[in-house]
Specification:
The protein has one domain. It has two helices and twelve strands. It is globular. 9% of the residues lie in helices and 41% in strands.
Length: 177
């Protein structure tokens, strides 16, 4: 007997197995990978980051751009906190390659996948990000962003994706871009 699961059932199984998924729009590298902090996702409450990556939708230019991920809390006010170190250079990153956040120690550098369309790197040590409550007794609100260094990208497009699990009541993530 052949089994078939409806689309909503398949999405639910994916959420339970891999975490909730949120993605940005496809972004122009000349607007987001330009040596300035860019906020990507809103974080409401406290979450466990299961997977986080930047995917090359079209080829990047040959600039030696590096990338890191960070968290900033708006409520309560906590300045930008690094989630990772700087990645290796994204020099001519090919379409389908990913820059993957590996979690664990804050200084751990995001890793560039070994082939186009294949992620041979996963987040090995998920991090708890965000706050449960502010001093005013309301759910904490913050953002996950990225910052590039060394050089600006002058061409190409990318998309950021996060998989997460809620760690406090009512916690969730939304895309900013």
């Amino acid at each position: 007997m052949k089994r078939h699961y409806g689309p909503s059932t398949m999405r639910r199984i994916g959420d339970l197995q891999h975490g909730m998924r949120v993605q940005t729009a496809i972004l122009d590298n000349t607007a987001v990978l330009v040596q300035v902090q860019t906020e990507l996702f809103n974080v409401y409450g406290r979450i466990l980051v299961i997977e986080l990556y930047c995917e090359a939708i079209t080829i990047f230019d040959a600039a030696n751009t590096t990338l890191n991920f960070s968290f900033e809390s708006l409520t309560p006010a906590i300045g930008v906190q690094p989630m990772s170190g700087q990645s290796a250079a994204l020099n001519a990153l090919a379409q389908g390659n990913r820059v993957v956040y590996i979690g664990g120690a804050v200084a751990g550098a995001p890793v560039i996948t070994g082939g186009e369309g294949i992620s041979d790197v996963l987040c090995v040590d998920p991090q708890i990000i965000g706050t449960t409550m502010s001093a005013a007794g309301v759910q904490g609100v913050g953002t996950i962003g990225q910052d590039t260094a060394a050089a600006n990208q002058t061409s190409g497009t990318c998309q950021f994706v996060i998989y997460y699990a809620p760690m406090s009541v009512g916690a969730y993530v939304t895309a900013i871009l």
